[in-house]
Amino acid sequence: MRDLIDFKMTKEGLILLVRDYESLEEVLEQLGVRISQMSGFFAKGDKIMLMIENSEKHAPDMPKIVAAIRNSGLEISQILVGSAVGENVNVSGRMKMVEEGDTKSGTKVVKKNLRSGQALVHPGDVIVVGNVHAGAEIMAGGSIAVFGHVKGILRAGLNEGEQAIIAVLSMQPTLIQIAGHILREVGSYDEPVVAYVKDNRVVIDKVKDVKFG
């Protein structure tokens, strides 16, 4: 079995590296083993950086990987884009994690704007009261509702699948995704709309015109 999980110490801090993989289950299994092996090194609540090779390919798995790390007692300060060769870590991009907003119901509610370079990752539903700027990204296991304008990336249904929806007041996003369906040329909407999956593709309707089923 190939080692998929590694820890890299850098000047900026500790990076948890997930190598490019084929099986999410194998990643989660190895993740639990490696963190357990290093339990004497970590204290609950310690922050690390997370790098997943080929991150665009594995973006749908991000909520489950992040949840597994958090369940182990660790927190993620940044998500890094890049790769590692030997002891050298090459970082081509980074996003700061948005931590606040967890609720007892399991829905994450964030009452602020998400700015470029910020990522919000949650295994359930996400509500944002604010704008999602270009360069910001939301990755939700469930549905996403944004009470503001969206120019960033929205990924919903990464756990719940095609039943998830995306609802926003207005948007001109870089990309939206629901489950495995990606829409890159979204266009601009200046009124409330809902995105959902119909006939194996992402459909966007004005709120007043939405007809599910």
Automatic annotation (TrEMBL):
The keyword DNA-binding does not apply. InterPro entries: CAP/MinC_C, MinC, MinC_C_sf, MinC_N, Septum_form_inhib_MinC_C. Transmembrane segments: none annotated. The keyword Plastid does not apply. Residues 5-75 form the Septum formation inhibitor MinC N-terminal domain. Keywords: Cell cycle, Cell division, Septation. It comes from the Bacteria. Residues 109-204 form the Septum formation inhibitor MinC C-terminal domain. GO terms for biological process: cell morphogenesis; division septum assembly; regulation of cell division; regulation of cell septum assembly. Pfam families: MinC_C (PF03775), MinC_N (PF05209). HAMAP family: MinC. Interacts with MinD and FtsZ. Cell division inhibitor that blocks the formation of polar Z ring septums. Rapidly oscillates between the poles of the cell to destabilize FtsZ filaments that have formed before they mature into polar Z rings. Prevents FtsZ polymerization. Belongs to the MinC family. This is Probable septum site-determining protein MinC. The gene is minC.
